[in-house]
Every structure is written in structure tokens, then in C-alpha cells.
Amino acid sequence: MTSPDEPAGLRVAVLTAMPEDERGGTALILLHGWGAPGDDMVGLGQLLARPGTRVFAPAGPLPEFGGGRAWWRLEPDTRPAWAWDDQPPADHVPNALVTAAREAVLGLLATVRARYAPEAVVVAGFSQGAMLALDVALRAEAGVDRVAALSGVLLADSLAGLHAPGPRRPRVLVAHGRTDAQVPFPGGEQARDLLDRYGYDVTWRPFDGGHDIPPEIVAALDTFVFADPEPSATD
Fold first, then answer.
1. pLDDT of amino acid 138
2. pLDDT tens for residues 155-171?
3. Tell me, what's the pLDDT at 165?
4. Among 18, 29, 64, 230, which residue's CB has the most CB atoms within a 10 Å radius?
5. In which element (H, E) is residue 99 found?
């Protein structure tokens, strides 16, 4: 099912066997990479679909050549800076396209909660979608329980969320190919290190491969998304 009426005009493919009026379960939001078709994450969503789960695969708002979509442009004047330290560059100005993409996904999360009241919310993304997934999940208002960054980095725009976490931090999966030629492996390592330094529970999954999502990472993502929650201090 595809719904064109989500926040900020996002077109969202929804995969689920749950009735529309059923509440609870797990909400899994999958964010595609730069230049991919808007429905690029539907195949991954089908692999991860389980009873009691709704998978939402939004298309990025910006058109790219060849019919692809993007969350932000990659031209020199619009490409967001990566975070190679826990402080943004001295001349850093928030990237307007990153801000717009963040607000769109936060709006989608708010709609999902209002309609379905999921018991768990997970955001996962690949490449540019991984950067956006981390950015959104670090925001206190997102209320994300788990976030998976596949072949991504942490953005300088995301450091504000890193420095001012909400009352609970999401668990994090970071996966990256050692021979990735598009988003270099050290970027994934740095995201892991920064999140770990700020007290996040990080699962690190390097793999021998490039800029893709191999079967071993699909399996790791499945385990991560559906692992039993950690007991609370009162259990």
C-alpha cells in the first residue's frame, strides 16, 4: 500500500499484515540512499516483515536524475559536513536540506504514533538514509527505540542531538563495508566511536564488502530490530 498524504508530502510505501485499526506492534521506518528509487527499501522491508510489524519506506522529497530520489543534494554548496570530531567546524551553519529532511521524518514518526501507537519504533537507513536515520534518532522528540546506520556517517548537523540527548538513548547498530568506495569505512568507525563516547549502546558490524547491504547485514539488522528489549531497572 502506498500513502501519498504523509507529512511534508512524503510518499510512503507501507508493508504490513496488520489491520488498519490495530494498534501496537513494531514500527520500522526504512530510509533509502541518495539517488535510489523512492521504493528502493521495499525489498528490504519485505525481508524484515514479521507479524505485528508495520514497515514504512518513505521516498526522499527531492528528485534526482534518472528517476531517483534524495534527502538532500550533493553539490558542494548543499552537501552537509561530516562529523570527524564531537564539535562542529567553527564556521558551521545548519544545512537547510538536512533540517527539512529531519522535520519530514519526524512528522512521519508523529503520524505513525498517533495512528498506530506502536510499542517500539525503529529507524534504519542506508548511505544518505543512514545519516538521516542517525540524525533523527538522536533528537529527543523522535522517541526512537533503536536506530541502524548501514554504510553511513554522523553529520555535523547531528552533533546538537548528540550533545543534548533525551531521557533515553536509542540502541544503535552501525554496519559498514571495509572496501566502501562511496562512504569510506573510517566514516563508519568515527560514527561508532562518537556514539560510544557519548554513552550509546552501539553494536558494530564491519564486513568485507563495499557500498551495499549483504545478506549477513540483513541478518544482523533482523536480529537487531526484533531483539527482546532490555529489562528496566524495576524489572
1. 96
2. 999 999 998 877 779 99
3. 73
4. 29
5. helix 96-116
- DSSP assignment of 139-203 equals SGGG--SEEEEES---BGGGHHHHHS--SSPPEEEEEEETT-SSS-HHHHHHHHHHHHHTT--EE
From first CA to last CA, the distance across the chain in angstroms is 39
Check whether 5 has a pLDDT greater than 80.
Answer: no
Rounded Cα gap, residues 211 and 235, in angstroms:
41
Which residues on neighbouring strands pair with residue 58, listed in sequence order? 12
CATH of the structural domain 2-226, one choice from 3.40.50.1820, 3.40.250.10, 3.40.50.2300, 3.10.290.30: 3.40.50.1820
- The pTM score is 0.94
Domains of the chain by residue range: 2-226
Q: Averaged over 82-105, what is the pLDDT?
A: 93
Mean residue pLDDT across the chain: 92
Q: Say how many CA atoms lie within 13 Å of 84 toward its Cβ.
A: 7
DSSP 103-128: HHHHHHHHHHHHHH--SEEEEEEETH
